[in-house]
Design brief:
Helices cover about 30% and strands about 25% of the residues. By secondary structure, the protein is α/β, with parallel strands linked by helices. It has one domain: Rossmann fold. Helix 3 links the parallel strand 8 and strand 9.
Length: about 300
């Protein structure tokens, strides 16, 4: 059962007739109890990106576009994927027995550096793929590699699976990778631009961003589901050395076992790659009355 509503407008689908209300309510309560007592298996897809505080300069390499000195740039976990990971850990704390995996594709050496910091945030198990993390890689090939890695997780129960990830990416804003991963895994219930997930009567209540600064409230009856996270509403967890030590015991062997995942990007062609141009039109005027300045600003806004 899927129910979506925005404000007072509600549209949805529910099997059964009105005279079966008592039966429907009993089924709904039973389903809620199952969700509260059944642990979730949460898989978070994420990767690393260059530190946004660094100067990024695109160059043309032998294999296509790349960033200048990309391997030398300090890296961080993709902020969108970071929000998804923190939300996954928060949900896992609410449902006892839940488990969180982080499936990441990146150069193994760079991924190890980033994990030294991320491991101290929340408990998770790493599934590493040794492959490119550039924003110029093909999202279709990337989704195929991530889906294969998820299918290889031992003991993964699809009936309890929640696939988390970033709604977009700091390196590639296509917003298509997570959707294709879900499709390859056969998950059709997908929610994008998610800011909040709550276990409520009837299933999972999901707040999705829509136009006009509003949220659409959706009810998903049960897993499996794909949730592409926006920023969420949780703060970044503090570093916990104890959590980091426990995580690193499993992260280091996972990095050693990381399978090579070359992304060929066959047929992908870039016509040009350049930084956004900065435009600044400045006019220095002395002794101009404030009223004239205001009228000029209003006229300029009206032209936009």
């Amino acid at each position: 059962m899927i129910l979506r509503h925005v404000g007072k407008e509600v549209t949805g689908r529910r099997d059964g007739r009105a005279d079966c209300g008592a039966v429907a309510n009993s089924w709904q309560n039973l389903k809620t109890n199952e969700l509260m007592t059944t642990p979730f298996q949460i898989v978070v897809c994420g990767s690393i990106v260059p530190d946004p505080l660094q100067t990024l300069e695109p160059v043309t390499a032998a294999g296509g576009p790349a960033l200048k000195n990309e391997m030398m740039l300090p890296a961080v976990l993709d902020p969108w994927a970071g929000h998804a990971l923190f939300e996954a850990a928060h949900l896992a704390q609410q449902a006892a027995g839940s488990k969180v995996w982080l499936v990441a594709m990146a150069p193994k050496a760079k991924l190890q550096q980033v994990m030294m910091t991320v491991a101290q945030k929340v408990p998770f198990e790493l599934v590493a793929l040794d492959g490119p993390a550039s924003g110029f890689t093909d999202s279709f090939e990337t989704a195929a590699a991530l889906a294969d890695a998820i299918e290889g997780i031992a003991g993964l129960d699809r009936s309890r699976l929640l696939l988390f990830g970033g709604w977009e990416s700091a390196s590639r804003g296509a917003g298509s990778t997570l959707q294709m991963v879900g499709e390859r895994l056969g998950i059709t219930e997908q929610f994008q631009g998610v800011d909040q997930l709550t276990v409520v009567d009837g299933g999972l209540e999901i707040l999705e961003r829509i136009e006009g600064g509003k949220h659409q409230v959706s009810i998903c009856g049960a897993p499996p589901a794909v949730l592409g996270w926006a920023t969420g509403n949780l703060p970044e967890p503090r570093n916990n050395p104890q959590v980091g030590m426990v995580n690193m015991r499993a992260i280091m062997p996972s990095l050693q076992r990381a399978k090579a995942a070359p992304v060929k990007s066959v047929g992908l062609c870039f016509a040009s790659v350049s930084l956004p141009k900065q435009q600044r039109q400045t006019r220095v005027v002395k002794d101009m009355p404030a009223a004239d300045i205001a009228r000029e600003i209003v006229a300029w806004i009206g032209e936009e």
